[in-house]
Predict the 3D structure of the following.
Amino acid sequence: MDQTNNQIGAILTRGPSEWQIIQRDAEGRGAFDLAGRWVSAAGTGTVQVRLVYEATGVAVSHALDWQPVATQADGTWAGRMSQIPAGGLYRLETRYLPASQPLGEWADRGDMRHFLGVGDLWVITGQSNSAGYGRGPVFDPPELGLSLFRNSGQWALATHPLNESTDTLHPMNRDGANTAHAPYLHFARLLKQQLGYPIGLIQASRGGSSMEEWNPHDPAPSGGLFENMLNCVAAAGGRVRGIVWYQGESEGGGLTGHTYQPRFAQAVEAWRASLDHPTLPVLTVQLNRHFIAPTVELERSWSQVREAQRQSARSVPGVSVVPAFDLPLADGIHTSPAGNMLLGERLARAALGAVYGQAIDYQAPDLQSATTAPEGQTITLTFAPVTSRMDNIDPAANCFRVEDAAGAVPVTAVSYPGGPNVQLSLGRPLAGGAVVHGGYGLAPATVPMDMERFMPMLGFYGAAVQVAA
């Protein structure tokens, strides 16, 4: 039996894929090119295309209703659909109208593409907490209008695991074990709810990856994941709205935390240059806790990475950071699904405030000053923004470390006088220049937070203590 598909009418050979989200432009519109061939026993005619709402079959607009495209006598055709409003889901339809058949409803059939949207694309980058190592049950279902450009090179309805590698086209970011839950489906869901249009995700992260794999200007670059990210973006349409980045565990564990900040700044510069987007937003996550046998070197390096992440949000325009100190873990280092849901919400709020300009509280309390009284046995830490007051759900917790010219200074008590301040009582007077670290080490005790918003402070390292006048 002849199984040849002798298709007739308008046949698509180039155009959007099903489930694809097209990045909207500065005016909130999308566009895509189309091409194909036509086959008809009726002879010469014209290929026509239109875009309709998937739910109703009604044309998206008069300008996007049936319109002719350039149709050649050699059996090929090409066209472009533009000025597509942000939204969806849409269906692309084609047909071939022979010159001898003026009635469009009886035109020769044509290929279709379903579940298209125009919205914003976000690239997922970083290591295992971005790739999605959160194990355990959670209700985080797929939703129409949330799409994922999978490692197979195909657009699909977004669902966990996001870094699933069936039929992958790029083993560069394939994880050795099955991945599980990540924060970004919930992140995308909340953006869609607030913005009113679809969100697409492009997965490029890989567990265990180090900065040198993402920064082509690193002193020892491998560049593989950097190039892979660019290839994924190009294959998904070439333009994106922003990047989400959760990485740094490799540098913390590799005792290179003190070099993280300049290397990250270089990476951001390279991403922006290569994607031709000088102000490309980058949302980052400050390292959570890590439960392993501590050493002096690991405690310090992990804290230095957190400080670099904090300072990057201060010094690199378009970079934002959210805290993760309070997020529960699924093992010694990976955020659990419950923690990922909260992290996805924090990242979404950061995007809505920092990227989309909504009037929304999203910034974590950040250290503004550390001052000591003349006698040098107390330190007052002042944070901003603070909606109500800094306090701690564990009043006995001490996540701070103080050092001066004589070495470590005992912190005998942590108190909360109200408002934006936290006060440290010291076991001896300060000797010479002193610094204070907050959220210090691999797995610090419970950190203070803005109680009104239940938002933990950002960790900090090496903040100079000034003597109050």
Residues 9-110 form a domain with the Immunoglobulin-like fold (CATH 2.60.40).
